[in-house]
Structure formats: structure tokens, C-alpha cells
TrEMBL record:
One of its GO terms (molecular function) is acetyl-CoA C-acetyltransferase activity. Residues 259-379 form the Thiolase C-terminal domain. Keywords: Acyltransferase, Transferase. InterPro entries: Thiolase, Thiolase-like, Thiolase_C, Thiolase_CS, Thiolase_N. This is acetyl-CoA C-acetyltransferase. Its EC number is 2.3.1.9. Belongs to the thiolase-like superfamily. Thiolase family. Residues 4-249 form the Thiolase N-terminal domain.
Length: 382
């Protein structure tokens, strides 16, 4: 198999729904990142583009994005929908394409605009038409599992995990505080500055709260009512953003004189219980590490998508000795979670984490709606 290298990864700022990017289409966000990557890394001909997207307008939005970015018409492009895990799945597919000899240089990642998410309507003859919240067939959240079409299905998945594992509100809030503190410290030091592509003059992640405190968290109401534990502080925001990585074969690296920063050691996909989807992150990470004969102690950087703080708690309970290497610069509770782009954000942040650690191996993992999980294992090049 051909070795697969990462030349670099970049992203837009991550901003809240109906915020600074409220009129910017997701394909435009993605196109700006593709253009920035090509300007920074002069790689020559591309083999293809793979983009993740979860709540866009459909119609192979990645092809539209590639054309907007000025990528040649003969370069193929296709879209992956694995919901939250879409960008990670796109990167995994690009890895597989290169490893199997199907091209030398691929762009892969994802894009999302929750601000411009279309309202969908079931056909009148669809049995789900009258089962929507208002009985009018309109919905925002797709059906991820049989018998469940609730708009708040993801929240309930996290709540079920919290209840099953006896995870208290306070334990979740502890990780919210950690996430914001680490992200604020990273922002103050400009850790992400060189990988962020400004959009129309905006270059800041607008979700980080430098003054996040237990007092503020205590004031937040429960999202799912009495007897539950999730609040807006322990569940990620809804966001807009895009993130992509540039991957190349060993052959391209040698022949084109490229300078990669890391190589991909392997990837993994996993399915699990749709009713407890947050478990997918650690479950798929465990599978990938076992496949390579490694443990979490062998990693210098670990990035999990913290769509919910329960994901952090599950990891911290199982591997308390690794907490300092886990989401080193904060996670989605602070930055946000633009669904189809988050796997690309994780990779960009993982490379930064490993750089801060002086190199070594790192792993990213993300849970997806429907009980899915995707993980990627990388190693920095000395």
C-alpha cells in the first residue's frame, strides 16, 4: 500500500448560527479553505476532492464547492454524509483512495452552514408526514434510526448515556470549564492563527468564553426538563464553518518535492447503539488503537469531538492519566460543532496539539448520529 501523508490542514473561524456567516453558503466557506490550502502548498495537479456535509441543500455540494474554488472541471469531487462524522469519513476515504493507488493528491474535509440549513418537508404520502413536531411534515433533524424522528434525538442520546453512567451535571460542567479555559488560553497565544482562513474580514472563533465560570453554568436551565442533566453549557452550540486537509502519496511527496507534516497510520469506522450515539467516539478509537497494537498512553495528542460533555467524562473516567493530552487546546464545547466540518477541525487541531508536544502519534475520534463513529491515527514527521 502507498503511504499517505498530510501536507497541512486549515479551517475557517467557527461561528454561531445566524452570526457573522449567516449569509455565507457552506460551499463558499469550503471554497475559501480550498483556495487557501492550494495557495500555501504548491502541490501541482489534484486527483480529487471529498467533502463532508450534513445539513446542506444536497446535490453533491462538494462538486459545487470545488468549481467555486477554481478547481479544474476534470477533477472529480463527491460528498459524504455521515452526519457529525462526515469530514472525518471524507478524510478516511481520501486516505483509502491514495493508499490503494487511486490518485496522488486529494483534498478532504467538510463544510457546514447551520444558518442556511433548509427546512425540509416529508411528502404527504410519507407515513412520517403527520408525525413531525407540528404535524405539517416539516423537519430540520433527519431520521437516524427506526422509530425515532424526534428533533431532539441527539440531546436524548447524550442524556441516556449520562443516566446510564451516572454522570452528574456538575461532572459535565467541569469539562465545559476545562474546554473554555484551554480554548481561551490557546486563542490568547494565537495557537490557531496560521491555520484559520478569514471570511470577509472575520477571523475569530466566537464561541470561546474566557470568563466561563461555575456561577454562569449554574444559571443555565436544563434542556430536557426536570430529572435530566444537560444544559446549553454541556452541549455544543450550532455552528457554521469549514475545514479541509491536503493529503498526498509517498510517490507525490518524492517526485514533487513536497514537505508533509504527518502521515496517516490508519483509520476506522464503527457502528453502535443509535440511542446512545455519544459512545461512538471512544468505541471507534479503541478499535483503531487495538488494530495497531497501541494504547492511549502511546499517544501524544488526542482529539475527541465533544459534542456533549458526557463524551469527555467517559474518556476521563477510563483514561484519567491522559487528560492533559486530550483536547489540549479545548474542544467543541468552546469552539462549536459545525457538523459536517468537525472532523476536519479535529485534524487541524490534532496537528497543532502534536506540534506543541514535540511530535509523536495522535488520534482523533468523532461520534455521529445514528450510532456511528470515525477515527484517524496519525504520526508527526520529525
Amino acid at each position: 500500500m502507498e503511504e499517505v501523508y498530510i501536507l497541512g490542514a486549515m479551517r475557517t473561524p467557527i461561528v454561531g448560527k445566524n452570526g457573522p456567516f449567516r449569509t455565507v453558503r457552506p460551499e463558499v466557506l469550503g471554497a475559501r479553505v480550498l483556495q487557501a490550502l492550494q495557495q500555501r502548498y504548491d502541490v501541482g495537479p489534484l486527483s480529487g476532492v471529498i467533502g463532508g456535509n450534513a445539513v446542506g441543500t444536497g446535490g453533491n455540494i462538494t462538486r459545487l464547492m470545488a468549481l467555486l474554488a477554481g478547481i479544474g472541471q476534470t477533477v472529480p469531487a463527491f460528498t459524504v454524509d455521515m452526519q457529525c462524522a462526515s469530514a472525518a469519513a471524507a478524510i478516511s476515504l481520501a486516505y483509502a483512495k491514495i493508499a490503494s493507488g487511486q490518485g496522488d493528491v486529494w483534498l478532504a474535509g467538510g463544510m457546514e452552514s447551520s444558518s442556511l440549513q433548509p427546512l425540509r418537508v416529508y411528502a404527504r404520502q410519507d407515513e412520517r408526514y403527520g408525525l413531525t413536531a407540528k404535524g405539517d411534515g416539516c423537519y430540520y433533524t433527519a431520521q437516524f434510526a427506526p422509530g425515532d424522528i424526534a428533533e431532539d434525538t441527539m440531546l436524548w442520546g447524550a442524556e441516556r448515556v449520562a443516566a446510564a453512567e451516572h454522570i452528574s451535571r456538575k461532572e459535565q460542567e467541569g469539562w465545559a470549564l476545562v474546554s473554555h479555559a484551554r480554548a481561551a488560553a490557546a486563542a490568547k497565544r494565537g495557537v490557531m492563527r496560521d491555520i484559520v482562513v478569514p471570511i470577509d474580514g472575520w477571523e475569530w472563533d466566537d464561541g470561546i468564553r474566557e470568563r466561563m465560570s461555575q456561577r454562569l453554568l449554574d444559571r443555565l436551565p436544563l434542556l430536557l426538563g426536570e430529572g435530566t442533566s444537560l444544559t446549553a453549557g454541556t452541549a455544543c452550540r450550532i455552528n457554521d464553518g469549514a475545514a479541509f486537509a491536503l493529503l498526498a502519496s509517498g510517490n507525490a511527496v518524492r517526485q514533487r518535492g513536497l514537505h508533509p507534516v504527518a502521515r496517516i497510520l490508519g483509520t476506522a469506522s464503527l457502528g453502535g447503539n443509535p440511542a446512545e450515539s455519544p459512545r461512538g467516539a471512544m468505541a471507534v478509537a479503541d478499535v483503531l488503537l487495538r488494530r495497531h497494537g497501541l494504547s492511549y498512553g502511546d499517544l501524544q495528542g488526542i482529539e475527541f469531538n465533544e459534542a456533549f460533555a458526557v463524551i469527555d467524562v467517559l474518556f476521563a473516567r477510563a483514561h484519567p492519566e491522559c487528560s492533559g493530552r486530550y483536547n489540549r487546546f479545548g474542544g467543541a464545547l468552546a469552539y462549536g460543532h459545525p457538523y459536517g466540518a468537525s472532523g476536519g477541525i479535529l485534524l487541524a487541531h490534532l496537528l497543532k496539539s502534536l506540534q506543541a508536544a514535540g511530535g509523536g502519534r495522535g488520534l482523533l475520534a468523532i461520534a455521529g448520529a445514528g450510532g456511528m463513529g470515525e477515527a484517524i491515527l496519525v504520526e508527526m514527521i520529525a
